[in-house]
Amino acid sequence: DQQVKQNSPSLSVQEGRISILNCDYTNSMFDYFLWYKKYPAEGPTFLISISSIKDKNEDGRFTVFLNKSAKHLSLHIVPSQPGDSAVYFCAASGAGGTSYGKLTFGQGTILTVHP
Amino acid sequence: NAGVTQTPKFRILKIGQSMTLQCTQDMNHNYMYWYRQDPGMGLKLIYYSVGAGITDKGEVPNGYNVSRSTTEDFPLRLELAAPSQTSVYFCASSYSTRGLANQPQHFGDGTRLSIL
């Protein structure tokens, strides 16, 4: 029972263009969503997050959009750079008081940015 | 600025052997977690701890044990290694309080474990 799904295993983008990574979830109790970036042989690194009370959060080149009615979130990277090439994981957490920050992860999307 | 440190980085075990994966953090985080990542899959929660002396099961706890005697350390124990436990193991930590419930987790670089 995959509660967080990233349906695209991989994405290839030209340098300077926009990268859009998608994530769907099924559990309506999730109220906090995060994106992590992972390079080979390293641990995941936090990128950006969004609370369910918002529909958009920006941090530099990275923007996360949340559509609660569709149970869908996306990560936009503009402009994409070769250094952005990595595996991107979407993660979700439930209500803060009882979830203790436990994360449910998607399967990951491999992003390749070509020079 | 070490963050979350995991040892060892690699290990090969024989079926039935036991070992402890070490995890320590120097950020004074109260919450700590153990995840495993199988090829092509996302991370799955094994165990977590909300403070010293308190641990609880995650999604895939079978075959593992944990302890949390200090704020800094959260070791993961495999008692009878099985091939199904071949995976990459990640330890993470975060700081949460009543008014600051959702905070990003910081991860170590992982332990790659093979059981043959």
Helix/strand layout:
The complex is a heterodimer of chains A (115) and B (116).
Chain A: E1 4-5, E2 10-14, E3 19-25, E4 32-38, E5 45-51, E6 56-59, E7 62-67, E8 72-77, E9 86-93, H1 96-99, E10 104-105, E11 109-114
Parallel strand pairs in A: 2-11
Antiparallel strand pairs in A: 1-3, 3-8, 4-5, 4-9, 6-7, 7-8, 9-10, 9-11
Chain B: E1 4-7, E2 10-13, E3 19-25, E4 31-37, E5 43-51, E6 54-57, E7 64-66, E8 76-78, E9 87-94, E10 106-107, E11 111-115
Parallel strand pairs in B: 2-11
Antiparallel strand pairs in B: 1-3, 3-8, 4-5, 4-9, 5-6, 7-8, 9-10, 9-11
TL;DR of this structure?
Chain A has 115 residues and is mainly β. Helix content of chain A is 3%, strand content 52%.
Tell me the structural class of chain A. Answer: mainly beta
List the uncertain runs of chain B: none
- Annotation, overall tally of beta strands of chain B: 11
Main β-sheet description of chain A: 6 strands, mixed
How do the helices and strands follow one another from N- to C-terminus of chain A? EEEEEEEEEHEE
Q: How many whole angstroms does the radius of gyration of chain B measure?
A: 14 Å
The helix/strand series of chain B, from N terminus to C terminus, equals EEEEEEEEEEE
User: How would you sum up the major sheet of chain B?
Assistant: 7 strands, mixed
Q: Unreliable segments of chain A (pLDDT under 50, ≥5 consecutive)?
A: none
If helices are DSSP runs of H or I spanning 4 or more residues, what is the number of helices of chain B?
A: 0
Percent of residues of chain A in beta strands? over 45%
Large-scale geometry of chain A: globular
Overall pLDDT of chain B, averaged?
93
Structural class assignment of chain B: mainly beta
Oligomer: heterodimer
Distance between the termini of chain B: 36 Å
Secondary structure tally: strands of chain A: 11
Strand residue percentage of chain B? over 45%
Protein architecture, described:
Chain A has 115 residues and is mainly beta. Chain A contains 1 helix and 11 strands. In chain A, the strands form 2 sheets. In chain A, strands 2, 4, 5, 9, 10 and 11 form a 6-stranded mixed beta sheet that branches. In chain A, β4 and β5 form a beta hairpin. Chain A starts with a strand and ends with a strand. Chain B has 116 residues and is mostly beta strands. In chain B, strands 2, 4, 5, 6, 9, 10 and 11 form a 7-stranded mixed beta sheet that branches. A 4-stranded antiparallel beta sheet of chain B has the order 1-3-8-7, with no helix packed on it. Chain B contains no helices and 11 strands.
